Amino acid sequence: MGRIASNPHKPDGSRPLLRRPDDMPQPAYEVLAAGDGRQRMDRIATAEFDLEAEIRDLAARRDITDVLQRYMRGLDRLDPALVRSAFHADARIDVGLMQGGADAYVAFTQTVLGGMTATHHLLGQVRIELDGNRAIAESYFQAWQGVATDDGGLRDLFIAGRYVDALACRDRRWGIVSRTLVTDWVRDEPGGADFFTANPALVRGARHGADFSQTFRQGIDR
Fold it and tell me: pTM, whole model, 2 decimals?
């Protein structure tokens, strides 16, 4: 493959935001047009570039990503309002262990996760397909859940899978209207708190508004 030429600079030394299609070397176009980018590059090459539409697209993806992120944060901080904010009122959720509406699901998360010693949900790659005010998203995740056993022991429960969501933008707010949890793998193994016992000065995660990420703001706001 040939060398991709760098963008020319403006007289003030800055780079232009966009490059004219007729000024783009063919190897560069082939790279940018590969896979999912081909349709967008064809639009740029054959029609006037619609900057406003592109900004709307980016803003929608930003807002949808925020929906997915605050949902995960709400789970780990046991913040029911934050979890609820990810869904529209008529949302339907199926996570296998529970199927129902948004309010019932939020109550379910607080009961189940609240019975665990702690949780840590990690959001992975996210694919978003936009169609006006509607979207489909597939989000990979991994979750650790600390489980206290009846005999006083601890177990580490790891769950990995994907959230498959239908979302809608209503009154300028994106939210989930349908969510299905797909479980890909699970690992249940012995756990323990010896490391934390031996290192009591560590800052530990907390819930119900007591986490450091929430309390440290009080000192900043003074």
Answer: 0.76
Q: Which of 123, 155, 117 is nearest to 139 (CA)?
A: 123
Range in 1-15, 142-156, 158-172, 208-222 the model is least confident about = 1-15
- Distance, in Å, from the CA atom of 146 to the CA atom of 154, rounded to the nearest integer, reads 7
User: Which pair of structure tokens corresponds to residue 116?
Assistant: 């665990």
Cβ-count burial of 77 within 10 angstroms (0-12 exposed, 13-18 middle, 19+ buried)? buried
CA dihedral over 43, 44, 50, 53, signed as positive or negative: positive
Measured from the Cβ of residue 187, the count of other Cβ atoms closer than 10 Å reads 10
Q: Which two tokens stand for residue 197?
A: 């016992």
Q: What is the pLDDT of residues 176-186, one digit of tens each?
A: 999 999 999 99
By the 8 A CB rule, do 132 and 167 touch? no
- List the one residue out of 35, 32, 40, 34 whose CA is nearest residue 7: 32
| DSSP assignments along the chain, one per residue | -PPPPPPPPPTTSPPPSS--GGGS-HHHHHHHTSTTHHHHHHHHHHS---HHHHHHHHHHHHHHHHHHHHHHHHHHTT-HHHHHTTEEEEEEEE-SS-EEEHHHHHHHHHHHHHTSSEEEEEEEEEEEEEETTEEEEEEEEEEEEEEE-TTS-EEEEEEEEEEEEEEEEETTEEEEEEEEEEEEEEEEEE---HHHHH-TTSPPP--TT-SHHHHHHHHH--
Residues 6+ apart with CB under 8 A from 142: 121, 122, 124, 158, 159, 160
Structure tokens belonging to residue 16: 């232009």
